[in-house]
Amino acid sequence: MLLNSLLLIIITFLFIEINQYFNKNSPLIIKPKEFKKFILDSKHKYITLIEIKNIQERMEVMIPSFNVNPQLIGISKNEIIKIHTTIKTHHPEEEDDEAEKKNDYWSAYILKAKKSTFVEIEIEYEIKDTAIDKIKCLWLDIEWGNYGPFGYFKKFNGFVLPNFLDISKVNSNNSNLVYPIKTHILGSLDDPIGILKSYMPSTCLPTDILTIGESPLAIMQGRYIDYRNVNANLISKLICKGFHPTSSLATASGMQTLIDISGPTRIIISWLIGGIFKVFGVRGMFYRLAGEQARLIDDITGTTPPYDKSIVLGPKETQDFCIKAAKKLNVNVAVVDVNDLGRVKILSTNNVNNSAIIKRALTSNPAGNANQQTPLVLIRPNELS
Hints:
With about 375 residues, the protein is α+β, with helices and mostly antiparallel strands. The protein folds into 3 domains: about 30-160, Immunoglobulin-like, CATH 2.60.40; about 165-220 and about 315-385, CATH 3.30.1330.100; about 225-310, no CATH class. About 30% of the residues lie in helices and about 30% in strands. The chain contains 13 helices and 16 strands. Helix 7 (about 250-260) packs across helix 8 (about 265-280).
């Protein structure tokens, strides 16, 4: 009897894992590679190059549609005089037929296994003079079709085209012991170490500590998912109901994102064990068993716009990032997760001896959790300790 029950459990979990495997989405990924910006008074032009890559070794996938909806974040529609989008393909095998490219028709394209293609997106817009200083960034909302052995569905991706700040105006030298640093809205076109170098004050000392939030770092690493791409199943809809409403795992899509990362078996077992421990007054066991991402995932509305409609994962290789950044910038570096309740979690730092100072300095959450655009915080430990 016991053997039969154990066999049934194993078969059930095997079926769940197989179902998860075959429900995987299209192997196509999209990533911005570079951009250029041109400004003439109130007229602006962005040109960005997007790479679409097929990471599957055998599957060919077709792209029957590709549409871009540009959104100027920070200004209202009545402040926009005009805006125009042009999409040009740069497929490796196509001839340079400009007439074909200018007719605004997207020809269905087959992307072969382990191959890439490129798309150039040009956004021209004119705005009222009163709106020039209000623009925070240009957000490209991309809706494109994927067609293959998995069927057909639409995918959604978004990218920020940066609107860099004048550092001399927003980050003048500050003598405060804990100093939040304002930046432009960060995106996957930004280099994390380059951002630290660009915005850190020129007066930084080797003993200073420069912290960066885990979500801004993850965003620069491209680790965010449009909620429309998440297909929540019955398991995620069931498990999410056992979490506090404020948790990022309390929605089916948030939980499904974790399941896609850690696997359904691990999450189900973690949920069951966590529930048992909770009965005996031991909380947090689920998060210990389900993996680091269980604590780091931010559901929609948890991040500053335009990422408020994205599920943001935790950053990767944070220890390596801290060591490289500290060596290059000659300053201590830490990746942190801070909230308004005084909770400070240090994901990684190049110098663990600074941990107590970092926690004490960030308890009041000087960077904020709203739209302050201050993902960096400078701590001067010699005077703070």
